[in-house]
Amino acid sequence: MSADEMVAATDLPPRPADPVGDAIAAFISELIGNATVELHYSQRGSALPAPPETDGSVIATASGDVLDGWTTTITVSFGQRAAARVDSVPDALLALPNAALRAATAFQQLPDVGNGRLAPSVQRALRDSIVVELLSHHQGWSQPECAPTDLIAETLEYLIELSGTRVESHDLTHGVVITDAIADEPRLSVYYPSGLRDAKRSPLLFDGQRSVLIVDQHGRARTEFQAHRPERLAPSDRSVRPIERDFADSGSLVARATEQLGGIGFFLREDRSVWTFLGGQPLVIRRSEHWAAFPQWLAKALGQAIGSSPAVDLIVRASLLVSIGSEGAIFAVVDDPSQLDPVVAIKDRYDLRNESDVSAMRPETRLHHLIDAGDIDSQTLARLGALDGATVVDRDGRLLAYGAIINSADSQHEGARTAAAKSLSLRALAVLKVSEDGDITVFRDGAPVATLLPSGNAR
């Protein structure tokens, strides 16, 4: 640094308030459940802050010139106790700090930012802008310099607009994939979404469940990706996976289209949530004006924490099914069925159904003999989990109990489902509690360790 630059640096005023920075830090920590987000500021031209000394828990960091005279550095980490989760975070989310800094730079120019606080409408727009930046700059585009930022922003705005409307007495669903996989020039240019806004039936034609609209990187609607013959656009010999059948009403066709054609996929559900897909996987979800990252790393993180077992994938898929269905549930994995003896009544124990005297059998026990759960799948587990009480499996995924009432001394101080999950987690390897708002909270050793898919309704 020259002498003149050093003098200029010393003349800089103390760092001003940064409401935009505070807002993006809060948003990232909401988006990636249980993450810690730190903002560091250094005078422009001086050395950037040294990376924090950690045990490898930092997942992403980025720096940019956002405030006049200052360089902002964003660091995202999981903290020492959650380092095992680091390598489970999708690569696409590692670009969040850079996406947030790009969005922040634009929002710093707004006239009301200088008053030290952001209006709720500005905060919502900032969150949407960060997601747009994240999606438009992912690594899948063949020409990154032509990232369709405006197109993705317009698509998101259109889907939010559709979420508040009905067509022909239908609650709308709609699926669209923006991809650069189609290289030929179209005979007719119909731009999306502007060219389809007046065609009221277009969301019904491309409902995201039977057909997905394919849009090229320049915003031209090109063709459809059909559920009954997906190989027409992109030949593939793979069969439909179980997770796709489970999520038939949550964009699995959009997911498959992004897997075969690349690009970014959007699916508007009947419940007005907007799901985004990248590379065949759900990435982030907009629900009740809040965004949440889809916890595709949850199964891997739990597997690392309690040991890999068939039960992990089973209860994770069941929890996600209950979550998108706006129901509540408690799912647990135990190492030894005997651990349930003090907390689960015999009548609720599916695994002990044959040990009861037939002449004195309780009505609940008779029902156990009618349930086909010998080789239980996620759909069946989700159905049982939607009943009041807890659903418990062992490490091998064998059903031990459902509708089990877990007594807790703390139930008068907090919700009954939360109290039950905490108590059960003292005996289980892990407990997943799904709230009616769709949140998924992971409990271990009597305490919550992560909240996933937050709906925002509790805030």
Spell out the blueprint of helices and strands.
Layout: H1 3-10, H2 19-31, E1 36-43, E2 58-64, E3 70-77, H3 96-107, H4 120-136, H5 149-162, E4 166-167, E5 170-171, E6 174-179, H6 202-205, E7 211-216, E8 221-226, H7 242-246, H8 252-261, E9 264-268, E10 274-278, E11 281-287, E12 290-293, H9 298-306, H10 310-324, E13 329-334, H11 363-368, H12 378-385, E14 390-394, E15 399-404, H13 416-425, E16 430-434, E17 440-444, E18 447-452
Parallel strand pairs: 6-7, 13-14
Antiparallel strand pairs: 1-3, 2-3, 4-5, 6-9, 7-8, 9-10, 10-11, 11-12, 13-16, 14-15, 16-17, 17-18
Return the average pLDDT rounded to an integer: 83
CATH class categorisation of the largest domain: Alpha Beta
- Sequence stretches where pLDDT stays below 50 over 5 or more residues: 1-10
Radius of gyration: 25 Å
**What structural category arises from helix and sheet content?**
alpha+beta
Name the shape in a single word: globular
Give me the CATH superfamily of the largest domain. DNA integrity scanning protein, DisA, N-terminal domain
Q: Judging by the overall fold, what is the CATH architecture of the largest domain?
A: 3-Layer(aba) Sandwich
Taken as a percent bin, the fraction of beta residues is 15-25%
CATH topology of the largest domain: YojJ-like (1
Work out the number of β strands.
Answer: 18
Strand order of the largest sheet: 8-7-6-9-10-11-12
Main sheet overview: 7 strands, mixed
Instruction: Please bin the fraction of helical residues.
Output: 25-40%
Tally of structural domains? 3
In angstroms, what separates the terminal alpha carbons? Answer: 46 Å
Compute the number of helices: 13
